[in-house]
Every structure is written in C-alpha cells, then in structure tokens.
Give the backbone structure.
Amino acid sequence: MPPELIQGFRKSEIRCDDDRLTARIICDCDMKNYISRTGAIGALLDEYERAIDDLKSIIQNISVKKLAAVVDDQTKDEDCRSVQTILTHVVGSGYNYALVMDRLKHPGLTYRDKIPRNEPGEYLKDLDMVFQYTEKVLGQFTDMEIEETDNSKKILTRWNQWYDIEQLIEHAIVHILRHRRQIEKFMIRLEDRFQS
C-alpha cells in the first residue's frame, strides 16, 4: 500500500521482505498503543478503549449549542434526537453492560439511570468512567470464564437476548461504533445548519 494511502500517519516506510510486501509504519503522532493488554479480555478491552477514544475524538470540540440541538425531530426513539441524547444513551448503556456482568459476581446491583449532561466535557469524563468500570469488572474474570456455551449460565439482557460476557462486550464495542457513526452524520447536518 502506498504511504499516501495509509491514513492517520505522517511517516511511513515500505520495504520488501522475502518476496512479500510489508509495511512498517513509523508514527510521529500521539497515537495510543491499543494492543498493550494480553489474552481475550485484553483484546476486548483494547478494542473497547479504541472505540471509546474514537467517539471522544468526534465530540471533544462540539459546542454546547450543537450538543443540545435536535437533529432528528421525526424519530420515535428519544435516544436519537440529538448528540446529547445519543451520548446520554451510550453512557447509560455502557455502565449497564458492565453492571450486568458485575452482577455475576455481585448479585443485587441495580441498573444505572441515564444522566443527561449539558457540557461535552462531562460526556468525555463519563466515557472514561464507563471504560474504567468495565475494565474493573472484567478484571474479576478469566479468559476461560468469558465464553459460555451453557445457555443457563448466560446473561439475560434488558432487551431479552442471552449473551455470555464475551458476546456482551462485543455488543458494547459495536454499540459505541454504531452511535459514533450516527453522531458523525449528525455533525455534518449540524455544520450545515450552523453555517447557514
């Protein structure tokens, strides 16, 4: 792949080894190392952190006005009207995904209510807290415990589907990705609205 096609990097070096073209990327930017943890849980946490950081990079400079602006007034889903409602939903869901896993070790924990925020910085902190809580919860399990084939030992979600821990974390990762994409689309519409 030509260096100019590798996005997000300022320098790159292409070299041939054993008749195979391999790319070695030299990054001179402040990119996190998302492959620092080990094992299945480590891989899931790395990807979850990456998804959360990608979302945070999209919202970090949003204005309070754009955060609260209703973008989709036609939707029946109250969680998808504005960037603010989406983020409130994402944070609440993130906590509750971790909570249902935590319940396996600590029964009796109750769901967390959604907490709307008025400042983008509050959501950035909330997303960090969601990740820290998830990391703490997953620290109670081994790689062998997160994959469960016995349906009687799986977690029943609020939307009435059964998941093992691995599936629930994978769902949490994709949940962030889907809503990040939705926010990106909202941001385009907001740019058009606030420029005119």
Q: What stands out?
A: DSSP finds five helices and four strands in the chain. Residues 1-30 have pLDDT under 50 and may be disordered. The radius of gyration is 20 Å. Helices lie at 39-59, 64-68, 83-102, 120-138, 165-195.
